[in-house]
Amino acid sequence: MSTHRDPRDRVQVLDEDGGVREGATVPDIDEDSLTEMYREMRLARHFDRRAVSLQRQGRMGTYPPLSGQEAAQVGSAMALADEDWIFPSYREHAAAHVRGVGLDSTLRYWMGDERGNDPDDANVFPVAVPIATQILHATGAAWAADLTGDDAAFLCYFGDGATSEGDFHEGLNFAGVFDVPAVFFCNNNQWAISVPRERQSASATLAQKAHAYGFEGVLVDGMDPLAVYQVTSDAVSKAKDPGPAGDDAPGRATRPTLIEAIQYRFGAHTTADDPSVYRDDDEVERWKRKDPIPRLEAYLRERGILDDESVDAIGESVESEVASAIDAAERTERPAPAEMFDHVHAERTERLDEQAAHLERLRERYGDEELLE
Ligand SMILES: Cc1ncc(C[n+]2csc(CCOP(=O)(O)OP(=O)(O)O)c2C)c(N)n1
Ligand SMILES: [Mg+2]
Known about the structure:
The chain folds into 2 domains: 326 residues, Thiamin diphosphate (ThDP)-binding fold, Pyr/PP domains (Rossmann fold), CATH 3.40.50; 38 residues, no CATH class. It is an alpha/beta fold. The mean pLDDT is 94.
């Protein structure tokens, strides 16, 4: 379905209490998938709590929490087909899980094991910590798929802060010019570490930036999983099959879409951050009223899809899945320190060889154990 929405209108299906908003179209999702959507969001929330606690106990290096952002991740990832791809930043643990990355792999990566960031069986590109770099990768991969006749869509996640990077402009500009099958998904969580959204851009919305690149921008309530699912499905359909020319680009249909999902990160930027120095508790409390999990739960209870018993059963299964993932991650033998050089480039450079040789000399001097400490 090709849609041409005004990027100043925020798409919403559920109100803050989980009721359907007047005039909203509820996306066509079967009951099992709705239950899965709810479970994935509960799983993400619980995983997040446990991961922060592991870091506090010294069992993990650092971790970027996602609480508050579950609907944006789960709703969008569930709208993709098997052949589609996601290009995450560093916060999309829930989207990656929906796409087939094990929670144990995600934990291993944040525990310092690079092998946890090699999701070979899932159509998930490795985590990108340098801001906005994945936008260029996604545009390039989408363009390549187009050239080879591969019928897949490429969904790229990034934050509000990433829209100030040159890579954002270059990636979206190129995507528009070459009309690639990409969906750019901006998780606008209101903050880029301590920089608020209004210091990021003077644009009224981030979605409207798409207009300058010649394609559609859509604003959605990112804490409403049904609305996120709907706008992402529409964008994916359009990426794969642009249909007739649209009003926003007379003469031809444009395939990419920029989605701005308005949301809030309840926790810190990472476990190395203290948000109390730059934002008020009142602000956090205000956004917590939009918490996506109780909203979807209320909607599903109202429709008789969930009840006390099934909600409790989901809670228990989520706890045991996360506990097993932690166990599996901690049981995995740690990689040899020298392996850190293996994934930097496709081929080792001279400089990396020098660094590897230096490490080897240190190993001979101190031994593996002391070196790891
Ligand atoms: C190129 C680059 N510059 C700076 C940083 C440091 N940095 C890490 S996260 C971050 C803020 C990103 O904010 P946003 O894009 O809104 O994503 P969020 O963390 O809120 O999900 C910055 C500046 C980096 N990782 N990469
Ligand atoms: Mg942000």
